[in-house]
Automatic annotation (TrEMBL):
SUPFAM superfamilies named in the record: SufE/NifU
InterPro entries referenced in this protein's UniProt entry, alphabetically: NIF_FeS_clus_asmbl_NifU-like, NIF_FeS_clus_asmbl_NifU_N
Membrane-crossing segments per the record: none
Source superkingdom: Bacteria
UniProt xrefs under Pfam families: NifU_N
Protein name (record): Iron-sulfur cluster assembly scaffold protein
NCBIfam families: NifU_clost
Native species: Propionigenium maris DSM 9537
PANTHER family (alphabetical): IRON-SULFUR CLUSTER ASSEMBLY ENZYME NIFU HOMOLOG (PTHR10093)
GO molecular function: iron ion binding; iron-sulfur cluster binding
Signal peptide: none
NIF system FeS cluster assembly NifU N-terminal domain mapped to chain residues: 2-122
A GO BP entry: iron-sulfur cluster assembly
Length: 122
């Protein structure tokens, strides 16, 4: 399987990996097809995402998509972050192999779940 340089970079040097204590938003999703799990932690002030961390037990693509998607939503308004699609995440990584597209869906779903958690608590 051929991965882009960007996928390899984000897999080897993940950005924003870790957890946030007492997050304003928290999302956890699993992929039924492979069993991988992704968690997203958000710190939000005035609807702006001020900090984001991820914890992913998964394949290289799942880690790379978690990493780049945290960069894509940092400092964004929550409504903008809700519009992030798995396609945009995959494109930002210069593409994913077709059998790995479901990994990027995890990132989209985990972010949406974390923002929905934040909104439900407001
Ligand atoms: Fe399941 Fe990548 S193989 S998230």
């Amino acid at each position: 399987m051929q991965y882009s340089e960007k996928v390899m970079d984000h897999f080897m040097n993940p950005r924003n990996s870790g957890v946030i204590e007492n997050p304003d938003g928290y999302g956890k999703v699993g992929s039924p097809s492979c069993g991988d799990v992704m968690e997203i932690f958000l710190k939000i002030e005035d609807d702006i995402i001020k900090d984001v961390k991820f914890r992913t037990f998964g394949c290289a693509s799942a880690i790379a998509t978690s990493s780049i998607s945290t960069e894509m939503i940092l400092e964004k308004n929550v409504s903008e972050a809700l519009e992030l699609t798995n396609k945009a995440v995959a494109e930002a990584l210069d593409g994913l192999p077709p059998v790995k597209m479901h990994c990027s869906v995890l990132a989209e779903e985990a972010i949406k779940a974390a923002i929905e958690d934040y909104m439900s608590k407001k």
